[in-house]
Design a protein that fits this description.
Length: 396
């Protein structure tokens, strides 16, 4: 994680930047319940067109400045540049840093990176879609994109370094028909319109034998996949796990509007690193292909993440409950709280939503309005219910 360590300095330096420099937009300090003085600050940044926060930890000898995890930009070089910018503008005495931007490395093909919220207004310019879930090294995703230039390939992967690696490959290979998203795939399908995809690939998903609720394949995932596939489209699962295979057989058997077929040790056109390894170990590899046969109606989605009623006082918002609020299908947890120093306001770190794919956001309250920072949550129904619960606590 890029960071800098600087010699202690007067915090007013940061407040001056907030007043004078459009890249630094607020400073907030953590509210602690104990008698110990606060030692953590949050700095709001609006840098190179992106909103995010930096954390400042005031330790004895050196102060640490690093990106705040839930708002961290995808491009590590942007974080590095923002830290260098802050150090320069604040004339900070840098004692240590790891923010050198490596020369010679291909830049991230940022224009092909998408945020999950971008899918609320998907514009594929009429191109059909193919979705790959958990693309890992990206061999199959890149291969498909080369082979089918007329299709827009959307790869979704939870592991950030894999996303960065594939973005570099997109640049190196000059591809223009891939979008890459760093997020939990189980949410993506919910965001897409119906009948838009020719294929959904799930190759060698993590079997999660001990935590089956974390599996990508589930009844909900399969029904969303069938909804977004156009008739004739295919959900393709490949796995080396006997247990996952048997589980998927059951899940794939349930929908009535589709049929599926199974092949064993089918030779794929392109093999991933995982597949190479399983083949060396002479494991069986199962391919299940579920075929969509019917057109699906568009989903009804009315989700509004605004806070439109009067809010509690700032002091009351700092006292939101600490315990997790549990509801039947979602939860809300108010975590660390910050009081803004450079204007009247508070920030509350919170996690909420479904138990297996929670959202992490900052709730930013100032000038009598509240918003999710840096952008609203994913428009899923579970998040909408969690937003309603948050409203119960923050409205008067
Ligand atoms: C065993 S690897 C397989 C990678 C690749 N498909 C292949 O065949 O080589 C599983 C991949 O799925 C990703 N993954 C696991 N759960 C995910 C989720 N919920 N959403 C997106 N990606 C996920 C992991 O980060 C990992 O890269």
């Amino acid at each position: 994680m890029p960071h800098i360590k600087v010699a202690p300095f007067a915090l007013q330096v940061l407040d001056r930047l907030v007043r004078e420099d459009s890249a630094v937009v607020f400073r907030a300090e953590a509210v602690t319940k104990s008698a110990y003085p606060n030692r953590e600050e949050l700095l709001g940044m609006h840098f190179e067109g992106e909103r995010f926060a930096l954390e400042l930890h005031r330790r004895e000898e050196a102060w640490l400045i690093k990106p705040e995890k839930t708002t961290r930009p995808l491009d590590a070089n942007r974080i590095k540049r923002s830290l260098a910018y802050l150090a320069e503008k604040g004339k900070l005495d840098v004692l240590y840093d790891n923010i050198a931007v490596s020369p010679g490395r291909p830049p991230l093909a940022e224009k092909y990176a998408r945020r999950i919220v971008d899918f609320e207004t998907l514009d594929s310019r009429g191109r059909p879609l193919a979705i790959e879930v958990g693309f890992g090294s990206g061999r199959h995703l890149l291969y498909q994109a080369r082979k089918h230039p007329e299709i827009l390939h959307i790869g979704i992967e939870i592991h950030l370094p894999s996303v960065q690696q594939v973005l570099k490959q997109i640049e190196l290979q000059g591809l223009t028909n891939i979008w890459v998203v760093n997020y939990d795939a189980r949410l993506l399908l919910e965001m897409l319109p119906s009948n838009v995809a020719t294929a959904v690939y799930v190759h060698f998903p993590v079997p999660w034998d001990k935590k089956p609720h974390r599996r990508v394949i589930s009844d909900a995932f399969v029904s969303q996949a069938l909804r977004i596939l156009s008739p004739g489209g295919v959900l393709e699962l490949r796995t080396d796990s006997e247990r996952y295979y048997r589980y998927a057989l059951e899940v794939f058997s349930r929908p009535e509007t589709s049929r599926f077929d199974v092949t064993k040790n089918h030779e794929a056109a392109i093999r991933s690193k995982y597949e190479d390894r399983w083949q060396r170990q002479q494991k069986n590899i199962y391919t299940l292909r579920l075929h969509a046969e019917e057109k699906s109606p568009e989903p009804v989605r009315e989700v509004d993440f605004r806070f439109s009623r009067p809010l509690k006082s700032l002091d009351a918002l700092l006292m939101l409950p600490e315990n997790t609020i549990l509801r039947t299908d979602h939860f809300v947890h108010f975590e660390r709280r910050y009081r803004m120093v450079t204007e009247e306001g508070v920030l509350v770190k919170c996690s909420f939503g479904s138990f297996d794919r929670p959202e992490h956001k900052l709730l930013l309250v100032r000038s009598g309005t509240a918003e999710y920072y840096p952008q609203p949550p994913v428009r899923s129904l579970t998040n909408a219910r969690a937003h309603h619960t948050i409203g119960e606590f923050v409205h008067v």
